[in-house]
Amino acid sequence: MAEVVDVAVAEGSAVVFASRSRLVEGVRAYGLIAAMWLRSTMAYRASFVMTAVGNFAATAFDFVAIMLMFSHVDVLGGYTLPEIALLYGVSGTAFGLADLAMGSMDRLGRRVRDGTLDTLLVRPVPVLAQVAADRFALRRLGRISQGLLVLGYALVTLDIGWTALKVVMVPLMLLSGAAIFAAVFVAGAAFQFFAQDASEVQNSFTYGGNTLLQYPPTIFAKDLVRGVTFVVPLAFVNWLPALYVLGRDYPLGLPDWVAFLPPVVAGLCWVAAGLAWRAGLRAYRSTGS
Amino acid sequence: MRLYAVVAAGGFRRYATYRIATVAGVFTNTVFGFIMAYTYTALWDERPRLGGYDMSQALTYVWLGQALLMTCAMMGGGFEDELMERIRTGDVAVDLYRPIDLQLWWLAGDLGRAAFHLLGRGIMPMLLGSFAFDLALPTSPGIWPAFLVSVALGVVVSFAIRYLVALSAFWLMDGAGAAQIAFLAGMFFSGLLLPLNLFPGLLGEVARALPWSALLQVPADVFLGRHTGWGLVRAYGFQAGWALALLSVGRLLQSAATRRVVVQGG
């Protein structure tokens, strides 16, 4: 009898601490799985170096294309090359960080199709952590270092009147931007519970969003800019905070203080993505294969 | 010949099975088409007639790129992963026993795949793009068949490149490195990011002479009516020349590799 009571008490407190301990547990599990993939990557160091260089080069070609554009023009959409490099560097680095942490999420549809998701469901570890850390790929540092390199070039070349707020803004937008992109990865994966074959839709928002943000908002149609400000709030990754650093006009005539919203927006994105993920997981029916 | 037609039809049907994936792909191509179309608009606003294209030709080039991205497999994809896996596991030995030509077998399947992607993922983004932007569609009806011939030749060149990538697995065991190099070269030198006409100086000359320009730059210029008469024959010659050269190298490597398989005992 005493045992039963003990169990009941333990379960009661487990419910109270469930959300907190689930988070801790998830982060811990993520770390363990990522570390495992890290060891497996490092078993073939030459291969790791080659794929990391390839990852770097794949993203670098985007910027080479922009530089080739600037061999014909001095400004694009009213922006100079160093200014675009700032937008590019912030978006690229933030996206790279999210890709490193969550880039495996787009494999979810395949897992639903081939039934390997079932294996993850029976383990006593949060599914999100397992899916996110699956095949943790350190080669994605290539993308991050490319973004940082372009960002560095921009910061060295640009003549910015630095204030304390502007200095703080740089790391702030990288981290909030990464969190926003990461939320998009999670939301995209949640969508794949319903449309298993449609991982490309996710790519349009992640890779497509990153490409979009690498150019100034002045060159896009107003409706598109509205969409990435108010619907999928990618504009908070770099446009709004970076334009504050550059001292440029914001798109859509937004007020000054929106430049400081990225952390808030990132938090909201995470809540929304978390809800979508739960809804997806709850709706999941195994294929039985 | 009949057999290869059946294989090609199989390649078509295989990709036609993935309907939701096709719709998702159309969505992605359209999103990227829009983003690129706006950047090109900004560029051509600044420098009208850049690279010899006017604004609507430049925008047409963007949407052709999205339409042909999967058809000409500019960034790789299709059969080569599968063939590499068969080489790695040794299953390729079974393929070599079959009374068929290995290269033609995979080519037939890839042509079927390309035909599906042209219809499934080519037409729709182009149509959506033409609603939103002023595109320069061919005025003379003869350009359409001329364009299709050029696309077909582009697909063969693309196949020949990817076949070489796949065969590298015989020597490297893991073809991932070769596939990645082919991905990078295909993305940059096909003119997907920026028309090769805009590449400056020597880089431009080299880029336009490399086989990857047969994947997008040449078919796009045929579509835009920049190759007519003898110019068209020369463009075809360029594509066919690369196709023949690369297919022959593939054939040589294949026979060298086949001997290797026998020596290893499969």
UniProtKB/TrEMBL annotation, chain B:
Bilayer-crossing regions: 20-40, 60-79, 118-137, 143-165, 177-196, 233-253
Keywords recorded for this protein, A-Z: Membrane, Transmembrane, Transmembrane helix
Pfam families: ABC2_membrane_6
Domain of life of the source: Bacteria
Protein name listed in UniProt: ABC-2 family transporter protein
